[in-house]
Design brief:
With 157 residues, the chain is α+β, with helices and mostly antiparallel strands. 35% of the residues lie in helices and 24% in strands. 23% of the residues are buried.
Length: 157
């Protein structure tokens, strides 16, 4: 009887512990880059996307950033972080409780791309295809970000 219980316990442990197949993606392993031009407020900025695909063909990380001239200094919106200064504007839109800075919103977009493993889920909210409500916690204009990521992902196919 003890042997039967031991065998059943072993079978249960095997069933619980990782006999699930590893999910495989459609992309080639590597790090891919894409850029796009973003014109906001009359200023031309460069958007950069870095997409890393792991050995199993899945997007493992996405990095998005945009150049900006701030107080006669060329920097990036992520580097500015809380000093970018859009949290109050975001709050006033009433979509994100307490508002969110640019870098916080972009992090939500990066995470959504990793979660979905593509950009097919984006539904544009305006005819110019700049704004979407497809990503929770994102109210910023994302068309140039999407263009840069699209270029990076196309290289990974």
């Amino acid at each position: 009887m003890k042997r039967i219980l031991a065998v059943l316990a072993l079978i249960c442990l095997i069933g619980i512990s990782g006999c699930t197949p590893v999910e495989e993606g459609i992309y080639k392993e590597g790090t891919y880059y894409g850029t796009a031009l973003d014109n906001y407020g009359g200023e031309n900025n460069t958007v950069i996307a870095v997409v890393y695909v792991g050995s199993e063909g899945l997007i493992k990380s996405v990095y998005l950033d945009t150049t900006i001239a701030k107080e006669e200094l060329i920097t990036t919106k992520k580097a500015l972080g809380q000093d970018y200064g859009m949290k109050e504007t975001s709050k006033n839109k009433g979509v994100i409780e307490n508002g969110a800075e640019w870098d916080e919103q972009v992090k939500n977009l990066e995470n959504k791309i990793i979660e979905e493993q593509n950009l097919d889920w984006i539904n544009w909210s305006d005819s110019k295809k700049t704004v979407t409500d497809s990503v929770s916690g994102v109210t910023i204009k994302i068309n140039a970000l999407v263009e840069a990521v699209t270029k990076a992902i196309e290289q990974a196919k």
